[in-house]
């Protein structure tokens, strides 16, 4: 999955051109799902920017090549650049409708709760997601940044409408195996965001001696070896790779073919 958060939250002058080029290259490399969110924007005034540029990028492709899109709601922007929450059922239904309008697709392929709202009962947020499915706004839903207990609760409410979970998971943030195992048991996809630990994480991984040794053994870069470690966590895991560079995108796709041994996986984390 190709993530677009960084580009859209810190947009360069040629944002639309770069996203369009990156989406096209991703599809050519075999990527079938693009990740965005209504809150992927630099400030309150540009809310929805990420969805708008992704829609234009996808629409520029011939229909048979257009990838699926996952977008998210529940995060808000206010007072310029501040981040907030609204996990109420009514807000999520309203946000989902607006996302469908910006992405020019109804139903949406996947709609996700961006992050649980500390001020809203989680069950209410889940029921809001179910209403989005029942109203034909989205085919399926995803939960982002949730623990195993919330996944189990949501699965009881949503049933087959729940498609997956999107949590952070990497060598630097390896505490996700309980949720990964639960996703496997429930037949859900586990979308691992920041699989390389973010921009700072990549720099740290490059200095890891154990990771460098594994990379040498497989003739790949340390970053590719780190991504292979994420993939080795289980068949339910799909990395969400956020990049603005085509070279990095090709490198991440190459990591799909790297198979670490059990000993290498254990040695790394």
From TrEMBL:
NADP-dependent oxidoreductase domain: from which residue to which, for each copy? 16-268
Q: Does the keyword Chaperone apply?
A: no
Record key words, sorted: Oxidoreductase
Q: Is Oxidoreductase a UniProt keyword of this protein?
A: yes
Q: Which Pfam families match?
A: Aldo_ket_red
CDD domains listed in its UniProt record: AKR_AKR13B1
| PANTHER family xrefs | AFLATOXIN B1 ALDEHYDE REDUCTASE, PYRIDOXAL REDUCTASE, CHLOROPLASTIC
Q: What is this protein called?
A: Aldo/keto reductase
Species annotation = Actinoallomurus oryzae
């Amino acid at each position: 999955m190709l993530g677009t958060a960084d580009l859209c939250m810190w947009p360069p002058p040629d944002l639309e051109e770069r996203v369009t080029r990156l989406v096209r290259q991703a599809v050519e490399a075999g990527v079938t799902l693009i990740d965005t969110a209504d809150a992927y924007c630099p400030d309150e005034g540009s809310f929805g920017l990420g969805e708008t540029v992704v829609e234009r990028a996808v629409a520029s492709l011939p229909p048979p090549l257009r990838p699926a899109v996952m977008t998210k709601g529940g995060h808000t922007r206010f007072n310029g650049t501040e981040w907030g929450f609204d996990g109420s059922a009514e807000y999520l239904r309203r946000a989902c409708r607006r996302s469908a309008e910006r992405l020019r697709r109804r139903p949406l392929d996947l709609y996700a709760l961006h992050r649980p709202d500390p001020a809203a009962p989680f069950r209410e947020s889940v029921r809001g997601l179910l209403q989005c499915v029942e109203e034909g706004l989205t085919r399926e839903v995803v939960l982002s940044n949730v623990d195993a207990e919330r996944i189990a609760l949501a699965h009881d409410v949503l049933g087959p409408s729940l498609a997956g979970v999107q949590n952070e998971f990497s060598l630097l943030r390896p505490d996700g195996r309980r949720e990964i195992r639960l996703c496997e048991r429930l037949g859900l996809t586990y979308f691992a965001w920041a699989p390389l630990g973010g921009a700072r994480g990549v720099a740290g991984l490059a200095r890891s001696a154990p990771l460098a040794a594994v990379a040498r053994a497989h003739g790949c870069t340390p970053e590719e070896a780190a991504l292979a470690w994420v993939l080795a966590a289980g068949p339910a895991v799909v990395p969400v790779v956020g990049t603005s560079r085509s070279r990095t995108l090709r490198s991440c796709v190459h990591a799909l073919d790297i198979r670490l041994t059990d000993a290498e996986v254990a040695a790394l984390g």
